[in-house]
Amino acid sequence: MISKLFSCVLMISLFLSIAAAQTAPQSDALPLSTNSAKALRLMDKVWDLEADQVEQAKACVVLRKVVRIDPNFAVAHEILAQFSLDPAEQVIEQKRAFATKSHATPAEQSLVVWFQSAADHELIPAITSMNQVVKQYPHDKWVVLLANFWLMNEQQYERAADVYERSGIMDSPGLDNNAAYTYANMRQFDKAFALMEKYVAALPKDANPQDSYAEILRMAGHFNQSIEHYRAALAINPRFYSSQFGIADTYLLMGNESRAREEYELGFRKFPIPALHQVQWKNREALTYIQEGDLAGADDAFQALANYAHANKMGQVEADTYRQMALYQPDSKQSSALLDKAEAVILEHKNMMAFAVQQELAQILRARVELAVKQGDKASAESALEKLAAMSDSSDDKVIELAYHGAAGAALFAERKYKEAISHLDEDIDNPLSLRLLALAYRRTGDVQSAKHAGEVLASVNFPTLEQALIVPPFRQCIQSPNCDASMKNASRQ
Amino acid sequence: MPCLVHAKQLAVVTDTSNPTTNLSSADLLKIFNLRMRAWTDGKAVIVVVRDPSTSDMQLLLRKVLNMSPDQAHAFIQTHKGSIVVADSDDAVIRFVSSNRGAIGVIDLYSLTKDVNVVKIDSKLPVEQGYLLRGNEP
To answer: Which of A24, A136, A169, A179 could form a disulfide with A164 if both were Cys (CB 3.0 to 4.6 A apart)?
Structure first.
């Protein structure tokens, strides 16, 4: 496992970790401006918890203590903003980081501006600020790991790997952990596995190395080995709940939905977990019904999740749950009503980062485009796409941009403008919805080799998401059938 | 393990004293095929590129120059005095930032404050419809 930030609708994994052992000379380290020696000492503890052990909730507890001791510690506010499991705290801490940056060094200020710019959808200043810090402190673990985390979120895996490799830091378990995920996302599993072996060997008494190894094995499709490593993590630390849910996720991806539900329920019974983790795995549990084709069961599970989110004032989660429900409804009117509901929820909630609201609205618009396409309602598709294009034009947000490309690709595909569709779908290749259309679009243009390649990639996607549950299992079944080419279009349960 | 490459965005960069903020794609072509040798203020254009075999350069070759990597190699060989080949984005930035009139192409995520980003056809790399974005194997 790596640390996860839950501030965007896709539950994109973001990473921050700091290793305990100092490897770089002191002069290579980013100076941390605090007037409290105690706060500085506690930051080392945050590093251990966040990076090596990936105890995100515990790390946040320590971070809260740090900012209480020194309320002007800008970088601590920023790190808490990035890794808090509480959306309201994320908003508050980002504001505090920006407000207190005058107490920090120019390099720390650049770090805060980097994340503030990203939050404001200003990509170019975010990039230049990040590179300013990376250039100044290429060997600092904080800097390398924050860069890795942000670039991964931006799907800039090559650049993330580049920052890691240039850092020359070879003995930081936490950094190895993050880098392994970078390589796994690049599908360079040999490098990822090698780093995992190193991580496990470095911290044999910690659960997280086994948990991470399990997740990366799962990404590569090695499900049984993955479960073995999750169990090894639990043997080391029986309270390391992410491994219990990792087992459940793995059974989900293996297509063993009833076993997956048993494992999720076991986890919910055994472990008190933070609300944002609770909703993450409740969502995954709901996916088991989708994969089984039990849409009534899925409705019940998703509605319970929406109710929970509503009761806990988690507007984004509630809205996104309704959006997800809209995606699998057989009745278009029901889908449309759910999207209205999602939009109403997102607009009424105020305790969210502005960018998170925009991201969710973009996802809802994407769903509207796809729904209209399915209904053959060209005017509605164009209208929603126009709004999405305007949102995408006025911000540099990756999630919004990908939503636009996915929607534009789907609309152009429906109009049989396959070449134009490809240029958009190509930008959204981590989403199985787009990947399936990409494979089909290549096929329609006669590019059989690219179609085959896109299909192979789609068949190898192993992330427990709604899009995976809707698209990948039926696609895998389809490609094993001799009539697959003809039926691929209808292979998903959408 | 099958893999698709994520889309890239390239940034065209000049030194910070260069007053040019926008180039048409036609002008960009003229600059990179060495038909336009001076900026509007009379300063000589110096082109700096990565090796044509890199994926970034292949995107530039396909989208702007309509050349294969082999053709680009041959072109560079025959214009050695006019085109500088850098081995990294950092090297491109270093060269551009310290040579007035220089222009280069880098991955957007390598961008620093040491250089200016030039719009292409009035679009920044982050805008929809920007020329230099896409996938290369």
So the answer is: A179
Residues A233 and A225: their CA atoms lie apart, in Å, by 13
Quote the number of domains for chain B.
Answer: 1
Can you tell me the distance from the alpha carbon of A362 to that of A350, in angstroms, rounded to the nearest whole number?
17
pLDDT tens digit string along A355-380? 788 999 999 999 999 999 999 999 99
Is residue B122 included in any domain, yes or no? Answer: yes
> Would B1 be classed as within a structural domain?
no
Give B131's contacts in chain A (Cβ within 8 Å): none
CA distance A454 to B4: 7
How far, CA to CA in Å, does A114 sit from each of A229, A445, B66, B130?
Answer: 36, 42, 36, 23
- Alpha carbon distance A451, A439 (integer Å): 4
Q: For residue A131, which residues of chain B lie inside 8 Å, CB to CB?
A: 110-112
Q: How far apart are CA A159 and CA B111, in angstroms?
A: 11
pLDDT value at residue B137: 53
Cα of A84 vs its chain's centroid, Å: 15
Task: Name the residue facing A460 among B2, B111, B135 (closest C-beta).
Answer: B2
Cα separation, B7 vs A428, whole angstroms: 8
CB within 8 Å: A427 and B128: no
Domain carrying residue B40: 8-134
Q: Is B129 left (phi over 0), alpha (psi -120 to 50) or beta?
A: left
Nearest to B49 by CA among B110, B103, B3: B103
**Whole-angstrom distance, CA of residue A114 vs CA of residue A412:** 35
The mean pLDDT of B66-87, rounded to a whole number, is 89
Residue B3 lies in a domain: no
> Model pTM greater than 0.90?
no
Q: Could you tell me the CATH number of the domain that includes residue B94? A: 3.40.190.10
What is the value of ipTM here, to two decimals? 0.92
Partners of B123 in beta bridges: B120
Question: Touching check for B6 and chain A: CB below 8 Å?
Answer: yes
Give per-residue pLDDT as tens, A68-104: 999 999 999 999 998 888 878 988 999 999 999 999 9
DSSP element (H, E) containing A44: helix A37-47
- Pairwise CB contact (< 8 Å): A128 & B111: yes
Residue A207 and residue B16: Cα distance in Å, rounded?
A: 50
Query: Which residues on A lie below 8 Å from B2 (Cβ)?
Result: 187, 453, 456-457, 460
Q: From residue A318, give the alpha-carbon distance in Å to each of A132, A330, A338.
A: 38, 21, 11
Q: Cβ B2–A189 below 8 Å, yes or no? A: no
* 3-state class (DSSP) for residue A50: helix
Domains annotated for chain A, with CATH where assigned, are: 1-184 (1.25.40)
